[in-house]
Design goal:
single chain; 792 residues
């Protein structure tokens, strides 16, 4: 009977069973229905990305009725607040660009969904929806109706265990079994022993070897065939094409040899090739997993949070030391790092980091508050429900909303080389085969297969990711935390560095503070300290630590105005703390000191004068940076410390004072318009705009939980003097990538020279291929570690 392919899923269908709709042929009503859904919603271009990309939807009647249970839904959701809920669903069928496109446009199919984002490597989609408009059950059924049924395991969500994909392990085991047994059965062939029983049963053993090779050929190597087929169908040539072609050629040639008694074939080389390639892939995955573990779970963030102990004392602790039941203090603009229960009377939470919506939400005592929200206003207390998830914080930091448009040159280099590599490799393989086929048939097939295998650019493709991954790990151990690997490349291109002053080149740990004006009574001093308690500005934290402890009091109507000061009401009294301009103290505007002024109930009392302490190693750091970079210092303060800075910093360093946040941003923009590649180093508070505008933004962390998505890196304050070292290491990382590219290409040239001349057997080529990957990974690891130690 005539067969056709289903327009939606691509399966073969018998002519008499086909369903014709809209001049297209479908294998079942399910596929036809999906096509109708897409057509009615103007999503038919789904089929333009890939030919027959869909899957036949399965019957799901009643399967997800458990999603009516609110307690179950609460365990599945990542976030839930009023009209916004977020869930990540595992969808095993995600396999191509069409899948990504339709899932990221699912909001056009289902009202109530506002956004969706696909994580292709993990085969997950993160959906943001309005639970008042659409239920989770409806979303799941909608996904299932178009062939993308989610995999939901309540056991995973309740116990925290993950289903591990062991398919590669099984394939490797099968390939090893086949390889070992075929090698054992092939021994008489190797030694050409002439013995009656061996000669009599030689055909039997050869066909036994053929049978044993089948599981490796059809099961263990099927991933290469599928990948090659999809690559050819999409019109792109990936590296699995020559590998799959080499395996198939060896199998066909070996089968012909046995069938026509030309010889024993190459089944030993074939199964060995599959085994060693899978071993190389396993090594690659394990190494990536190791780098991911190092990156996500070993103190990725240096931010800390204030914990309130049983004796009411406050202690700054790393976020990953927080345990269930702990009581935390969250100040203005601090990130809420964990899910918890609000203890304070009320709070205003900004969830824009999670949802993208900037409208703050008001919460009352006893309400649940979610990790990722930013406290806005007065200081609050909360009780922890779950320990912190480092991977969740990483996800927030890397949210697409806060990503910069950065170049991806190292990716482009890899992609460009791989794009040209495969067609060139196929040309060399067929040319070599064409030459040898007229000389020696066996050698021709050996050469053809060896060329395809030995020149596999896997090592070439791994060069940049492994170098970047290892440097990320090295920098992380030294408390310099980068948002992603692309930051390393951007760091290597920097030519101008702009520093903020307060909280960046000065420290809020050490400062000489004096008071000038009408003495504050003990009661007023307590009022000022309680107002400062909610602020995260470096001067606020210094003054808070300087003032004596007293009674804790509630702050109402707290407001922090960036670059000016703070104000609020405590015990019915209005307090303002900040600059002379903010307090409308005009006669103080021209003073040459860093100071914080106090006004209570409209009465001006005086000011606290700060003689800032500069960070340890500042002078030597600027001296070394001056040789390679142009340095500029921006400050929101007046010129009170200009003379001191001129004595401390190298001559020619540009100093700019009285800069408001928007002026800092404009200063960065002008430098970029002049063609400068600018790195901004700030405290992440008043500098958020400048950090976002700069090519690279580095936030200095003084052990407070201030989360700045605008920055590309977080540097612990006590490692500030190492900044030049980090910049030099980033340049060496790019040098290492270039050297490893050269090494990988050299390896391919040498391997091809042996393969083309017929001096390299396919099995040896299969062994060398994973060894080349190990060599490249070892090289970039050794070189990056060497540079990390040598540059210190």
């Amino acid at each position: 009977m005539d067969t056709q392919n289903c327009f939606h899923c691509g399966l073969d269908i018998i002519k008499v069973e086909e369903i014709v709709f809209d001049e297209r042929v479908f294998c079942c009503n399910g596929c036809k229905t999906v096509y109708e859904i897409f057509s009615l919603n103007n999503l038919a271009c789904y089929y333009d990305f890939e030919k027959s990309p869909g899957a036949t939807p399965q019957k799901t009647n009643g399967k997800y009725n458990f999603l009516d249970n609110e307690s179950i839904i609460s365990k599945l959701l990542e976030f839930q607040e009023d009209t916004t809920a977020i869930i990540s669903l595992s969808i095993p069928h995600i396999h191509c660009s069409s899948c990504i496109w339709i899932l990221e446009n699912i909001h056009r199919l289902q009202k109530g969904i506002s956004a969706s984002q696909v994580n292709f490597p993990d085969k997950k989609v993160r959906i943001t929806y309005n639970p008042e408009v659409v239920s989770l059950q409806t979303i799941v059924y909608r996904l299932s109706s178009i062939g993308y049924e989610p995999y939901i395991s309540l056991e995973n969500y309740e116990t925290g265990t993950n289903n591990v994909d062991r398919s590669l392990t099984y394939k490797l085991g099968v390939a090893f079994f086949c390889f070992g047994n075929i090698m054992l059965l092939s021994f008489p062939e190797y030694f050409e022993v002439n013995e009656y029983w061996l000669d009599t049963y030689k055909p039997f053993f050869r066909w036994l070897i053929f049978v044993i090779s089948l599981p490796a050929f059809f099961y263990s190597a099927n991933g290469y065939y599928v990948s090659a087929y999809k690559s050819i169908r999409s019109g792109m040539l990936n590296i699995d094409i020559p590998i799959a072609l080499g395996i198939i050629v060896m199998f066909v040639r070996s089968t012909i040899d046995i069938a026509f008694d030309y010889g024993s074939g190459f089944f030993d080389s074939l199964t060995g090739l599959i085994f060693f390639m899978l071993l190389g892939k396993m090594f690659q995955i394990k190494t990536y997993s190791f780098l991911s573990f190092e990156r996500d779970f070993k103190s990725y963030f240096p931010i800390a949070v204030t914990r309130i102990n049983a004796d009411a004392s406050e202690e700054s602790v790393p976020v990953y030391d927080i345990q269930k039941g702990d009581r935390l203090l969250i100040r203005n603009q601090e990130l809420i790092p964990v899910d918890g229960i609000l203890i304070s009377e009320s709070a205003t939470i900004d969830y824009s980091f999670v949802t993208g919506e900037a409208i703050p939400i008001t919460k009352n005592s006893g309400d649940k508050i979610f990790a990722g929200g930013k406290q806005v206003g007065k200081v609050i207390d909360m009780e922890v429900l779950h320990s912190v998830s480092q991977s969740y914080l990483t996800q927030l930091w890397s949210n697409d909303v806060f990503q910069k448009d950065v170049e991806q040159q190292h990716k482009n280099i890899t992609d460009t080389i791989s794009h040209f590599f495969t067609p060139i490799l196929l040309l060399i393989a067929f040319a070599s085969f064409g030459y040898w086929i007229f000389i020696d048939t066996i050698t021709a097939f050996n050469v053809f297969t060896s060329v395809l295998i030995v020149a596999c650019p896997c090592a070439l493709a791994l060069t940049a990711p492994f170098t970047m991954g290892n440097v990320l790990r090295i920098l992380g151990k030294q408390k310099f935390y980068l948002k992603n690997a692309l930051v390393i490349e951007q760091l290597s291109k920097v030519d101008t560095i702009v520093f903020d002053k307060t909280g960046t080149i000065t420290t809020n740990k050490k400062s000489s503070i004096s008071y000038e004006g009408t003495p504050l009574s003990g009661e007023n001093s307590i009022l000022v300290k309680n107002l400062l308690r909610a602020s995260n500005h470096p001067l606020s934290r210094m003054l808070y630590d300087f003032l004596p402890d007293g009674k804790r009091m509630k702050t109402a109507n707290f407001e922090e105005i960036s670059g000016k000061g703070i104000q609020g009401a405590i015990d019915g009294k209005h307090i303002k703390v900040g600059s002379a301009f903010f307090l409308e103290k005009s006669e103080e505007r021209a003073t040459m000191q860093t100071s914080v002024h106090i006004k209570i109930e409209g009465v001006y009392y005086g000011k606290y004068v700060f003689n800032n302490q500069y960070r340890e190693g500042l002078e030597s750091l600027f001296k070394s940076l001056k040789a390679d970079y142009k340095i500029k210092v921006l400050s929101g303060d007046n010129e009170g410390e200009k003379t001191t800075l001129e004595n401390v910093l190298p001559k020619g360093t540009e100093l700019v004072f009285n800069q408001k946040p928007e002026q800092k941003l404009e200063f960065i923009r002008k430098l970029q318009e002049e063609g400068k590649n600018v790195m901004m180093v700030g405290d992440g508070l008043n500098d958020a705009g400048a950090l976002a505008q700069s090519n690279i933004g580095i936030s200095i962390s003084e052990n407070v939980n201030v989360f700045s998505p605008a920055c590309d890196a977080i540097l612990e304050a006590n490692e500030f003097q190492k900044l030049h070292y980090f910049l030099k290491l980033s340049k060496k990382a790019m040098t290492t990538i270039k050297m490893s590219f050269a090494l990988s290409l050299l390896y391919n040239v040498v391997g091809l020279s042996f393969a083309i001349t017929g001096n390299l057997r396919p099995l040896v080529a299969a062994i060398i291929m994973p060894l080349s990957t190990i060599t490249i990974v070892s090289f970039v690891t050794v070189m990056s570690n060497y540079y990390a130690k040598r540059l210190k």
